[in-house]
């Protein structure tokens, strides 16, 4: 029996959705534990693409999917996503999909504040997804949040909304110069959401722990990436939750002893959406090549993703912060066609090589990436399904990643489809 956490090692969009969908075959339950609909996780099965923002990526495998207490949930988006999946013939009833009664509800003022703050910041903006994620986590921390347990109690919800809305409207009108929001309109809307979602609201911690006691296997699905973590990322250019593996426990209500393995998803190069430092960024033709060949547009906002070389300084940061036991390398096919590849293996600051990832963005801005070069390959590898059949140059690139990180590669992804994958070692085996 094994319980495995899957997280992103870079700045998000590493291909977590694909890897979770693939490994969900071996799990009984799939649990999201943080973030919200800032995430966009893509699965491609039999040529059909499905993007999920809130529903865990185990849903296409018919697994029980849970949204944990650590997630901030926009009920309108959840309902829309359920309807989209149901229209595709995917079972999404209360037995398949549960949301924690302790999960925070994203409210219209969270989105309005998120967008208005970004507008006000102008060129200094974070480049958030505008989904209200930061303001929702902010209210959770200041104890002004509304949870699903509140949402399904109409009278209580009404009272709590009446207590919080004047403060939000004051801030929106007087500071952000936006329109105030109407209590009656919000209440009516959210009451309808509550009626639809009530059968799905459950105690996720109790359910997951009971399942584990019965010998069921759980897959914990991270969102965003290690360097967007609120504590460990490139603060303030981060999201508002802990994206590292430790939060799988807090965000779903399980103890740390329950976790047997942590898989870090690594895109074979690096991308980032939104503002913030990115030492190995390529602002040249190679960057454009990766962007267009990799179809690097955000799955949530459609924004063009910034592209750069693989960076093992950040990967090693991710190895340490998450306790990675295995790597899943994705989008390896995209690197094909380049004569030379580069891997950023260190940062030089004032003539010295940095020992660890700097906390100061000022220092990071002055860091010079140190690169090693490695031969590229010309072959199209997207139909290769066995490691032995990969060209030698591809094996050398993979070998460098293993040597530089000290973590075994367990999965290699060579295309977006579920079956365009080489599994060297199934993380659910032998635990
Ligand atoms: P996530 O947020 O980590 O789940 O990643 P996204 O879904 O936002 O972005 C990953 C994108 O890469 C999606 O469009 C996937 O379909 C695609 N993808 C995943 N793995 C591969 C791969 O190995 N090769 C290629 N070419 N595309 C991939
Ligand atoms: P997945 O799960 C990539 C980025 C935003 C912005 C910053 C803060 O698909 O990998 P937020 O709306 O969270 O306050 O925005 O974080 N961001 C992501 N970037 N992938 C994601 O999720 C992201 N979720 C948030 O672009 O820079
Ligand atoms: Mg994504």
Write a brief structural summary:
With 431 residues, the chain is an alpha/beta fold.
> What's the CATH H-level homologous superfamily of the largest domain?
Adenylosuccinate Synthetase, subunit A, domain 1
Radius of gyration: 22 Å
Q: Give the CA-CA distance, first to last residue.
A: 6 Å
- The percentage of residues in β strands lies in 15-25%
Biggest sheet layout: 10 strands, mixed
Count up the helices.
Answer: 13
Top-tier CATH class of the largest domain: Alpha Beta
State mean pLDDT (0 to 100 scale). 97
The count of DSSP E runs of length 2 or more, i.e. the number of strands, is: 20
Question: Which regions have little confidence, pLDDT < 50, spanning 5+ residues?
Answer: none
Strand order, largest beta sheet? 9-7-5-2-10-1-11-15-19-20
SSE inventory with pairings:
Elements: E1 3-8, H1 16-23, E2 29-32, E3 41-45, E4 48-52, E5 64-67, E6 72-73, H2 75-87, E7 97-100, E8 104-105, H3 108-121, H4 133-141, H5 148-151, H6 154-175, H7 183-197, E9 201-202, H8 204-213, E10 218-221, H9 247-250, E11 261-267, E12 270-272, H10 285-293, E13 306-308, E14 310-311, H11 312-322, E15 326-330, E16 340-349, E17 352-353, H12 361-366, E18 368-375, H13 392-405, E19 409-413, E20 421-423
Parallel strand pairs: 1-10, 1-11, 2-5, 2-10, 5-7, 6-8, 7-9, 11-15, 14-16, 15-19
Antiparallel strand pairs: 3-4, 12-13, 16-17, 16-18, 19-20
This protein binds guanosine-5'-diphosphate, 6-O-phosphoryl inosine monophosphate and magnesium ion (MG).
């Amino acid at each position: 029996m094994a319980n495995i956490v899957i997280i992103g090692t870079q700045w998000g969009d590493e291909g977590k959705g694909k890897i979770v969908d693939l490994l969900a075959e071996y799990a009984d339950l799939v649990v999201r534990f943080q973030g919200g609909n800032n995430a966009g996780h893509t699965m491609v099965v039999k040529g059909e693409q499905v993007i999920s923002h809130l529903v865990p990526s185990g849903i296409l495998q018919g697994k029980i999917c849970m949204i944990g207490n650590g997630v901030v949930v926009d009920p309108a988006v959840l309902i829309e996503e359920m309807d989209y999946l149901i229209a595709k013939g995917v079972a999404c009833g209360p037995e398949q999909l549960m949301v924690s009664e302790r999960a925070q509800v994203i409210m219209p003022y969270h989105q309005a504040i998120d967008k208005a703050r970004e507008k006000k910041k102008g060129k200094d903006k974070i480049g958030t997804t505008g989904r209200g994620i930061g303001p929702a986590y902010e209210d959770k921390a200041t104890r002004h949040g509304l949870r699903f347990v509140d949402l399904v109690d109409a009278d209580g919800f009404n009272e709590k909304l009446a207590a919080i809305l004047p403060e939000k409207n004051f801030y929106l009108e007087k500071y952000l110069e936006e329109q105030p929001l109407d209590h009656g309109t919000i209440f009516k809307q959210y009451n309808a959401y509550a009626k639809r979602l009530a059968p799905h609201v459950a105690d996720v911690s109790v359910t997951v722990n009971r399942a584990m006691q019965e010998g069921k296997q759980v897959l914990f699905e991270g969102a965003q990436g290690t360097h967007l973590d609120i504590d460990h990322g490139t603060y303030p250019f981060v999201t508002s939750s802990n994206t590292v593996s430790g939060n799988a426990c807090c965000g779903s209500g399980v103890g740390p002893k329950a976790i047997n393995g942590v898989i870090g998803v690594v895109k074979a190069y690096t991308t980032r959406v939104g503002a913030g430092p990115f030492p190995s960024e390529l602002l040249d033709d190679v960057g454009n090549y990766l962007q267009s060949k990799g179809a690097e547009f955000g799955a949530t906002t459609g924004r063009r993703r910034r592209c750069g070389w693989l960076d093992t300084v950040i990967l090693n940061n991710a190895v340490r912060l998450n306790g990675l036991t295995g790597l899943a390398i994705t989008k390896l096919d995209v690197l094909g066609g380049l004569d030379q590849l580069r891997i950023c293996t260190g940062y030089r600051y004032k003539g010295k090589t940095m020992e660890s990832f700097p906390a100061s963005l000022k220092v990071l801005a002055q860091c010079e990436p140190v690169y090693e070069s490695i031969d590229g390959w010309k072959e199209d590898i997207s139909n290769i399904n066995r490691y032995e059949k990969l060209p030698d140059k591809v094996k050398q690139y993979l070998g460098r990643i293993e040597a530089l990180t000290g973590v075994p590669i367990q999965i290699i992804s060579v295309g977006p489809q579920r079956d365009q994958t080489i599994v060297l070692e199934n993380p659910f085996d032998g635990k």
